Structures are given as structure tokens and as C-alpha cells.
Amino acid sequence: MSTFRLAHLSDPHLGPLPDPKLLQLFSKRILGYLNWRRNRSRIMGGSYLEQLVDDMKRQAPDHIAVTGDLVNIALPLEISGARTWLEEIGAPENVSVVPGNHDAYVPGAVRRARAAWWPYMRGDGAGDVPPNGTKSQATFPYVRKRDGIALVGVTTGRASGPWFATGRAGSKQSKRLRATLDDLGRDGFFRVVMLHHPPFPHATHWHKRLSDASRVRAVVKRAGAELILHGHTHIDSFEHIEGPDGRVPVVGVPSATSAPGGKKPAARYNLFRIEKTNEGWTCQMEEHGFSAPNEPVKLLSERQVDIPTHRP
């Protein structure tokens, strides 16, 4: 097979925030709204996102993975606006999305997000609309097969209480994930698991953690995967968790709207060049982003990603 180019970006937190109705703020949203007004609106810039996406498109990726937090406080206008943004970055068959905690900010939000973004988070062969009467988590994990690559979308986005940004995969989804990864591994696919919250230990503060990360790690340890992509932390990270054939790389990326010069790394996207060989798989990773204010997007680093050789 030819080289498959997979781009990964996350946490765009699309702005500006629409003016909320008063009743919409009678919830956890009031905290997020104040945080946006005081902090996020200054450190997250749409112009950086636009430049980042333009540069990413010039790389002509075969597929784009967006690992959550498209919105801020999950207002209906934010969710519909995010659908418009998705349409601008690519066709549904070329862009895969999983929800983050901000997309599930209040009860019912992730259900509305799934309905609006369904073409971007449905598996191969799924219907044009989400199945009637199903909970939002019931359609995850979804699978998209592209030229020997299997993109596996996992949801960890769930509504949480004030001052919490936790996520959870859940036991039912985790069981489905294990069966899915087992099947794909037997068929020889390069399995890319996409989720919002990082699954490795001590990845973030307790109130922002993936509460059942150990369960997800256990699934990967038994079934295996070739690459895991996440967002949530707004930093660049390269970690590993155990798989049945060796260590599985876990890669995080900064927020796609983070302005240069702040406390967190500036906006970036990662580009993976994946190729099948006689011995297994090779994967080359590039980081593209901003290194300083008033500078264009550029190639920041390159590295070879060691992929465990899966033996079904």
C-alpha cells in the first residue's frame, strides 16, 4: 500500500462564544461562560486555527482526526457552528470526530452534538441519522476502514459537575472496544484509537482525569492497538501504554487555537505518515505549528514512531 497521511488536531474550542440566553446559564455553563470572558477569549484565537488548518490542507492528508472539545459550553449555536467548521475542513468521509468533555458540558449536550456531527462520527455502513432511541454512547466505538488503516472512535465525553472535566469510557463501550480491536487485529489493520481524555497514568489533574483509564489500558493490553490519539491536556505529549505485542504509542496535541506566548504550547497539529512493510508497519510523525507570535506555521519536529508488530 502507499503511504497513508493522517492529520491530528484537537481542542479548537471554537469562538467567539454566542450570546447565551439567561436560562442557558442556570447550570454549570455560568462557570464556563465566565472563564471564556476572563481567560479563554484572550488566549485562544480563531486566526491561529485558520492558519493551522490552511497549512494542514496544504499537506493533503488522506484523513483528519479531531479528538474533541470543538465547543466551549455546548450552546446549541456552538454545536451547529461546529458542524459548519467541520464542513470547511473536509468531507465527512475524510474527517473523524470524537466528543470531548466540553462537547458534553451539560446533560443532553453530547446527544445534540452527536446528531449535528453524525456524518463525522459514524462508522462505515451506519445510517444517515443516529438510531432512534439510542443513548449517545451506544454508537461508540465506531470504525472507519481506510486503505489498511482502521480509525476507531471512542467517546469519553460525559457531563460532569461544576469544576470537573472528567471523562469515562464505561464498561459497555470498553467491552465493545476490546471486541472491535480484536477483530481488526486479526484482519491485519493498523488500528488508530481516537479519544479525548488521555488513558495513561497521571496524565492530568484528578478533577480532569479519565476516571476509568485503567479499564481502557486493560483493553489495549489484551487486544492491542498501533496508535492512540488524544487531546484534552492542551499540551504536546508522547507516552506509551502496554499492549500484547509491546508498547503502544499514545500521542497528544496542543489546542488548535492556543495563541503563542501563553502558558500552554501554541497551536499545533500532528501529521503521521503510515506505511505497510514486509515486517509490519512504519510511522513517521511530524509536528506542525507556531513557535512564536507573528510567525507562520512551520515544521517543528520529526520523529520515528516505533509500532509494535502485531501477531494475531
Automatic annotation (TrEMBL):
Query: What's the domain of life for this entry?
Result: Bacteria
The residue ranges of the Calcineurin-like phosphoesterase domain are 4-235
UniProt xrefs under InterPro entries: Calcineurin-like_PHP, CNP_phosphodiesterase-III, Metallo-depent_PP-like
Has UniProt tagged this entry with the keyword Nucleotide-binding? Answer: no
User: Which sequence ranges form a coiled-coil region, renumbered to this chain?
Assistant: none
**Known SUPFAM superfamilies for this protein?**
Metallo-dependent phosphatases
Annotated segments matching region Disordered: 292-312
Regions of biased composition (Basic and acidic residues) lie at 300-312
Q: Name one GO molecular function term.
A: metal ion binding
Question: Which keywords does this chain's UniProt record carry?
Answer: Hydrolase, Iron, Metal-binding
**Family from the record:** Belongs to the cyclic nucleotide phosphodiesterase class-III family.
Q: What is this protein called?
A: Metallo-phosphoesterase
**Source organism of this protein record:** Roseibium aggregatum (strain ATCC 25650 / DSM 13394 / JCM 20685 / NBRC 16684 / NCIMB 2208 / IAM 12614 / B1) (Stappia aggregata)
